[in-house]
Amino acid sequence: MKYLKHFVLLLLLGSLFVGCFDDNDDVPQVTGTIEINDFIYKGMRTWYLYKSDVPDLQDNRFSSDAQYNEYLRGFSSPETIFEALKSNIDEFSFLVDDYVALEQAFDGITRNNGMEFGLKRYPDNPSNVFGYVRYVLPGTDAEAKGIKRGDIFNTIDDTQITDSNFTTLLNPDTYTIGLATFDGTNVTPTGTSVTLNKVQYTENPIFINKTLDVGGNLVGYLMYNAFTGDFDTQLNAAFAKLKSDNVTELVLDLRYNGGGDVETAKDLSSMITGQFNEKVFTTEEWNDEFQQEFLENDPGRLINLFDNEIRGGEAINSLNLLRLHILTTTSSASASELVINGLDPYINVVQVGDTTRGKFQASITVYDSDNFRRQGANTGHTYAMQPLVLKSINSAGFTDYFDGFTPEVALEEDYTNLGILGDENEPLLKAALDNITGAVRGKQKSDVIHIDDIGNSNILNRDYEIMYRRQQ
User: Fold this and answer.
1) Which of 72, 111, 142, 242 could bridge to 147 as Cys pair (CB 3.0-4.6 Å)?
2) What is the residue-level pLDDT of the chain in tens, covering all 472 positions?
3) CB neighbours (10 Å) of residue 416?
């Protein structure tokens, strides 16, 4: 029996894909666990980056159809076989039971009340958790209810948030937050509560785009919160505005950006620069079988080049910068880190803030069809996988940054005084501007009390902290 030892060359060299489509018709649910387990096994056996680390994915694992079918029957759910087939070093591959929702998430569409928040452990009781509002999305219920950056909350529906219940408490479409204050040590309830309602919402990832005059230096400031391909035109327009303002420096705020589309990350890097068109941005490394096929038949497929057009052919608006300041936190992941790593061999990338997440792998969406694409997917269920399929390597050969990128200017956010995003006195932005102008810095990282992070509002989203390739 052959278990996908070789795949047709057309599939190997064809366009890669993720779920970002408009045909979101309802599809009947699961017809049988064994059938889905079979899809998961074959999909992982074909695509998985770390397949060589997983004994059950090796050649000749099964001597007969009967042995293979018995193996599939040994897992009670699709989730259990998927987890069993993951490498121990893989924190990011995932399985969904509703690929329509996944596709919508890639397009920036989620059910959202507009309160984007982080979650932190109590300094004096680490099992308890409080939330802090990072920013509020325009036109949402949170904006209408007066929620603002820096607000603290510690209960949901009168229940204390903990490290074991936060996902359950935050999942409903409607919940009530209990507001509190935080002085750096103590979380104190205020007695005020606010009920928030989620609706379907499409988020524009370009949150702030402005030009600052800092001591005669024209500095662009762009807060960009997700690499969402559907907003590439708007991103390019934002750079057209910065270019027309004649900025000579740029502060790119990726502090809450968990990643997204690889092509968008490459194009953003080309907007920042422009002088490196057709030079290597990154190269890719796939599993052994795919890597060999690409090297023998289409080696250019493994190379991502700086370019001068976005998807659709619109010319990129480039700033031709030789220095970039990037604001980061532990929530800066994936495609955000790809920008840092890809640009680093070419220009002076000054990282300001905290150490990034540490994710250098990209994924694709794998569907239950003959060629694992969306078209022709099994109509009996809506399971799909998002396995890691490649790792990115910059032009200097650097990859495997499991521990993330450490900032040159280290400063954690101060949850007692977050400041106003885009304001020159907001702590992280001020640290970047001080570095640009050579001014003496204010509060240092050592002055801010470190508080353990446990997650953020995007942890419930299907596209949380991923970097993916999508069909052109």
Assistant:
1) 142
2) 333 333 333 333 344 433 322 333 333 333 478 999 999 999 999 999 999 999 999 989 999 999 999 999 999 999 999 999 999 999 999 999 999 988 988 888 889 999 999 999 999 999 999 999 999 999 999 999 999 999 999 999 999 999 999 999 999 999 999 999 999 999 999 999 999 999 999 999 999 999 999 989 999 999 999 999 999 999 999 999 999 999 999 999 999 999 999 999 999 999 999 999 999 999 999 999 999 999 999 999 999 999 999 998 999 999 999 999 999 999 999 999 999 999 999 999 999 999 999 999 999 999 999 999 999 999 999 999 999 999 999 999 999 999 999 999 999 999 999 999 999 999 999 999 999 999 865 555 556 778 888 888 887 665 555 555 553 3
3) 15
Three-class SS of residue 394? strand
Q: How far is Cα of residue 163 from the mean position of the Cα atoms in its chain?
A: 22
- The answer to whether the predicted template modeling score (pTM) of the entire model surpasses 0.85 is yes
Whole-angstrom Cα distance, residue 385 to residue 364?
A: 8
